[in-house]
Design brief:
- The complex is a heterodimer of chains A (715) and B (217).
- Chain A is α+β, with helices and mostly antiparallel strands and 715 residues long.
- Among the domains of chain A are: 95 residues, 2-Layer Sandwich (Heat Shock Protein 90), CATH 3.30.565; 93 residues, no CATH class.
- Chain A is 65% helix and 8% strand.
- Chain B has 11 helices and 5 strands.
- The chains are: A alpha+beta (715), B alpha/beta (217).
- Chains A and B meet through α8, α9, α18, α19 and β6 of A and α1, α6, α8, α9 and α11 of B.
Chain lengths: 715, 217
């Protein structure tokens, strides 16, 4: 069932990348280490054990190579089988090796490779299984070394570093998967927001346009009626009637325009012969996907009711929208049924209704019914909490703490082991102290080391390794600090400098090989020493880069969501204002339009009333903060005397209220004194004057509180 | 020109009543003759040019924009005098960016419309207080290459003064003021207009008086 819904692609891609990495690494290890570890002792192991090993390797490699074509379930199954193979590989070793313990000699190296399987465990079941695999691998390895042999410096160094590698892979892998899930969530949010925004914009634009035409109609009618121009009376009456109808229609529209949800539910109810009631106090408009789910679920519920409620049952659909929540109830008073008695495989309700609602984020549904008591299906939707801001590297902090603990304890043990081995017991603790010091430098440069600081970290690390390599004997165990130093550089990559860290790893390995070459070290020892640093470096760099890329995309998507959400808020505010003004407009102009429409000759009083109301509407557009007493009274009086009054507010709305009051008091008598034309204007900010009045030929400036008034403009 | 000395006036408006009103005004002017009324610009330009000045409603309901309409009429070969019913600065600014020779509000007294018609018929500009005020308060103009004197002229004109009063206040000739206004209009036409859908929509909202625009508290 889960497969039918396509899993979000970023997470699927991340899972495929992890599976591929696991497969390729397993293949490399299998090729590089023939048999199990290519030593004579391994031949003492029974053939059936080799079958287990080959099987486990084949599963991990196969899953990895097929990953690009596998779905989420295929990846999970393949990885789970791989983990099972690993557990069998670990668990069967004791029975396989015990009969020939002496011949086996020591625990094969490959037995301690945990890191690879950790990736598979993450894919199979997540972090918990991965941690369990690490614990199992570490414990089994220690146990076998005690029982079979190999509890020496090489063994201890190898195991502690193997555990450390596994912990690091586990942390980065889990982080990668978490980030990919966030990317998918952000992507879904962004696309839902954009669909919603464009739908709303379309609706609003259409409505706003309609309202603009109404205004146009009203203003044109009032102007003509008031102007006294020779216009045929009957034509004017027709136009007034038309304008009045348009205003009434706009004012009658509900405050919230019919949402697609409401329309679709009403239609579904009608189709099923049910009554429909909407109680929408809020402005809830769920995203289209949710709308679709609600309508489909409601249709299914109605369908059920029609089929099972019996003859004559009454059906009702009730939509309730409050704040942002939406609830839809589909009820009938029919036969009802016993929910417990419906066989699970025939639960059309449960699969179609409940499942459908639960599949959308924030959706919920339940079905209630009893024999004889009717049936009631409740669908609810609450907007899911806003997506949290991407947590960045913060979510890595816990993982880094775990890595630090495993590092200090594990490498401490390795250093002690190396010190006991000799020949110079003071060298290993010194080397560890040096590397811990580098780690401290790194820790102090959070959140992201600067380039100079990163270079210092690389240089110090290489210096410690060079110094150590120059003085200790050249064996896998005594060179424990080379992989340890590589881990420090992995930390540098995790801290946000993957390129610098990668370059550092190359230099580190180069230095080790150069020094080894001068001391005629066997090639296989060199290979053993440098393999882990190289693998860890490549993997951590790639994973960190992948995570970084995803985080950037998440940020971009979040920005888009915020943008769309703010547009939506703007649209909603516009719509609310539209509704309120529609009603106010109706109250103001409809009586006057009806008077013009009744075809009786217009009196001078009617004409003046038209001009006054037309001016009032005009002021609502243009006079802004100036619309206040006593100015409005003076303006009305002047218009009734036939004066052409123009009020302009070109301020930016920041003028304090008491200042505007003062301006209105100052402007009122000037308007009262005008004979034919007067223009009152609030000036844009930053001008010499705050307001001006030009009455007939006379210009007066208002320069500000207490600054007085001057009767002529001075340049 | 058609008959010598006569300027032919056509009207494009949604309301036939406005045509009757304009016809009345034109009839009272000896130099003017009414040519034609059409509800859309498309209908007007479908026929060969038969008008010298076209009075154009800025807000036609056939879905056309002021920019398209002014451009079509200009190409057809006539000067445009724009009529606006709302005094919305956004609409006035949109019209000011076109080649229209003048902008008059429908609610202005009939004499104002008559004077504007005569000015455009003469080949002059018919600029108004509303035009100046919309430009003067436009943030876009703040960055435009206007001289201090031009800004001053615009500001005074926007306060409601006529050309004569502005000239008197600045101690210069009326011709000088006319030159300033012409240059201001030209520069404003050059300013690139933002045409994103969002801005258009916003303009629409403000035009309607339903959204706070500049000048509304």
């Amino acid at each position: 069932m889960a497969e039918r819904r396509a899993e979000p692609s970023a997470e699927l891609s991340a899972r495929r990348v992890v599976a591929l990495g696991v497969g390729v690494l397993t293949l490399l290890l299998a090729i590089l280490t023939p048999g199990i570890v290519g030593r004579d002792g391994d031949r003492a192991l029974p053939p059936w054990y080799f079958c287990i090993v080959v099987g486990a390797v084949a599963i991990l490699v196969g899953t990895g190579l097929l990953a690009p074509w596998l779905g989420p379930r295929g990846l999970r199954i393949g990885s789970a089988l791989g983990v099972a193979g690993y557990v069998a590989f670990i668990g069967a070793f004791l029975p396989a090796a015990l009969p020939a313990a002496a011949a086996v000699g020591r625990v094969p190296w490959m037995l301690s490779v945990i890191g690879v399987v950790v990736g598979a465990a993450l894919l199979a079941d997540g972090l918990r299984l991965a941690v369990a695999v690490i614990v199992l691998g570490a414990c089994a390895s220690l146990l076998y070394r005690v029982v079979i042999g190999g509890l020496d410096l090489d063994g201890i160094v190898n195991d502690t570093q193997s555990v450390l590698s596994a912990v690091i892979i586990c942390a980065i892998g889990a982080h990668l998967l978490a980030v990919s899930r966030r990317l998918d969530a952000a992507r879904a949010d962004a696309s839902a927001a954009s669909v919603l925004a464009s739908a709303e914009r379309g609706r609003l634009a259409a409505r706003t346009r309609a309202a603009a035409l109404v205004h146009d109609e009203v203003l044109a009618t009032l102007t003509l009626a008031g102007s006294g121009l020779p216009v045929p009376r009957d034509a004017l009456a027709r136009q007034a009637a038309h304008a009045s109808r348009m205003v009434t229609d706009v004012a009658r529209e509900p405050a919230t325009p019919a949402s697609p949800l409401r329309v679709a539910l009403a239609r579904a109810a009608r189709d099923a012969g049910a009554s429909f009631r909407a109680d929408a106090a809020g402005d809830a408009e769920p995203p289209p996907a949710v709308e679709e789910a609600i309508v489909a679920a409601a249709r299914q519920a109605l369908d059920n009711s029609v089929r099972h409620a019996g003859e004559g049952a009454r059906r009702e659909v009730v939509l309730t929208a409050r704040d942002d929540r939406v609830a839809v109830d589909v009820r009938d008073d029919g036969h009802g049924f016993d929910l417990a008695a419906v066989p699970p495989d025939r639960l059309g309700i449960a699969t179609s209704i409940v499942r459908r609602m639960r599949d959308v984020p924030g959706g919920e549904a339940d079905v209630r019914s009893s024999p004889g008591g009717g049936a009631r299906v409740s669908l609810r939707w609450t907007p899911p909490a806003a997506p949290s801001a991407p947590a960045g590297r913060d979510s890595l902090r816990g993982a880094i703490a775990a890595i630090v603990v495993v590092f200090v304890v594990g490498q401490g043990v390795a250093a002690v082991g190396a010190a006991l081995e000799g020949p110079a017991p003071w060298v290993p603790p010194l080397l560890l102290a040096g590397l811990l010091l580098v780690g401290e430098v790194l820790r102090r440069s959070t959140p992201r080391p600067t380039t100079p600081r990163g270079v210092v970290v690389v240089a110090l690390t290489v210096a410690v390794v060079a110094a150590g390599t120059a003085v200790v004997p050249f064996t896998f165990g005594t060179l424990w600090f080379v992989p340890t130093a590589a881990f420090v550089l992995v930390a540098l990559a995790l801290a946000g400098r993957p390129f610098l860290a990668g370059c550092g790893q190359v230099v580190l390995v180069g230095v080790v090989i150069a020094i080894a070459a001068t001391r005629a070290t066997p090639l296989d020892t060199i290979a053993h020493v440098v393999t882990r640093p190289l693998v860890m470096a490549a993997m951590s760099t790639l994973l960190v880069l992948a995570v970084d890329r995803m985080r950037h995309r998440i940020l971009a998507l979040h920005r888009r969501t915020v943008d769309e959400t703010s547009r939506r808020a703007w649209d909603a505010a516009a719509r609310a204002e539209l509704a309120v003004r529609g009603a106010a407009l109706g109250a103001l102009v409809v009586p006057l339009l009806d008077r013009i429409a009744d075809a009786r000759p217009l009196t001078d009083d009617d004409r003046r009333a038209c001009l006054t109301v037309e001016g009032q509407l005009r002021d609502e557009y243009r006079a802004g903060v100036l619309v206040r007493e006593p100015l409005t009274g003076a303006v009305r009086a002047a218009r009734e005397r036939g004066v052409d009054v123009v009020l302009l507010d070109d301020g930016d709305g920041t003028a304090p209220d008491d200042l505007v009051d003062e301006i209105a008091r100052w402007m009122a008598p000037l308007v009262e004194g005008a004979r034919a034309r007067v223009v009152g204007r609030m000036l844009p900010p930053g001008r010499q004057a705050v307001a001006t009045v030009v009455a007939d030929e006379e210009t007066t400036l208002f320069r500000g509180r207490g600054a007085g008034v001057s009767a002529s403009p001075s340049p | 020109m058609g008959m010598p000395g006569l300027v032919r006036i056509a009207l494009v408006d949604d309301h036939e009543l406005v045509a009757l009103a304009v016809r009345g005004i034109v009839a009272g002017e000896p130099g003017l003759v009414f040519a034609r009324y059409e509800p859309t610009v498309a209908a007007l330009v479908a026929r060969p040019p038969d008008a010298d000045v076209v009075v154009l409603d800025l807000n036609l309901r056939d879905g056309t924009t002021p920019e398209q309409n002014v451009a079509a009429v200009s190409e057809w070969g006539a000067h445009v005098l724009v009529l606006t019913s709302a005094e919305d600065p956004y609409l006035v600014r949109a019209a000011s960016r076109t080649a229209a020779r003048g902008i008059v509000r429908k609610s202005a007294p009939p004499e104002a419309l008559r004077e504007a018609l005569l000015a455009v018929a003469r080949g002059d500009l018919a600029l108004s207080t509303e035009w100046a005020s919309a430009l003067d308060a436009d943030p876009l103009l703040a960055a435009a290459p206007l001289t201090d004197r031009e800004r001053e002229v615009l500001s005074l004109y926007a306060s409601g003064m006529g050309v004569k009063q502005v000239a008197a206040a600045l101690f210069v000739s009326e011709n000088t003021i006319d030159d300033h206004l012409r240059r201001i209009r030209h520069i404003y036409q050059q300013i690139g207009r933002p045409a994103a859908t969002k801005i258009d929509l916003y303009r629409r909202g403000v035009e309607d008086g339903y959204l706070p625009g500049p000048g509304r508290g």
